[in-house]
Backbone:
């Protein structure tokens, strides 16, 4: 038969507090034997389970993942609840992912529309400025042309006037 350890022995052996042991028992749904005085007693296999929990926690595993791993190793005795809870979490993660993608898509659409509006405003402004410059240039060229024509008429008139002195 395996050696049996008290909760104090287990805490000392693992280097964790008694309250941590109790919390792990509750969090990971561990069924720990009790003696005739109703005190917890731990076996070598219980110690291995706690070592596994500590190892997984040090690697960054969350409570749900550790429960699932313990269930697969047939350590925890509430497998259907663990599977159901993890399926819910996977479903929640999937919904969260879909919502996140939708929010990103909506945000990108709004940003693209905003940029299009800004571009249209800037384009209209630049086109108006360019149109104004072209109108001013045409007006200046027309003035030069009118001035040239007036000078040309004066010169022609003076030639005719000299020839036919009236």
Residues:
């Amino acid at each position: 038969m395996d050696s049996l350890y008290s909760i104090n022995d287990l805490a000392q052996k693992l280097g964790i507090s008694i309250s941590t042991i109790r919390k792990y028992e509750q969090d990971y749904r561990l069924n720990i034997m009790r003696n005739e005085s109703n005190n917890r007693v731990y076996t070598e296999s219980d110690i291995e389970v706690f070592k596994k929990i500590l190892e997984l926690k040090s690697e960054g595993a969350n409570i749900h993942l550790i429960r699932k791993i313990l269930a697969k190793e047939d350590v925890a005795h509430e497998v259907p609840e663990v599977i159901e809870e993890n399926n819910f979490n996977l479903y929640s993660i999937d919904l969260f992912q879909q919502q996140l993608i939708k929010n990103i898509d909506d945000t990108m659409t709004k940003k693209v529309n905003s940029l299009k509006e800004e571009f249209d405003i800037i384009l209209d402004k630049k086109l108006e400025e360019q149109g104004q410059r072209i109108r001013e240039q045409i007006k200046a060229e027309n003035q030069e042309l009118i001035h040239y024509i007036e000078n040309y008429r004066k010169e022609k008139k003076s030639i005719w006037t000299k020839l036919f002195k009236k």
Notes: The two ends are 147 Å apart (CA to CA). The helical segments are 7-14, 18-27, 44-58, 63-72, 79-163. DSSP finds five helices and no strands in the chain.
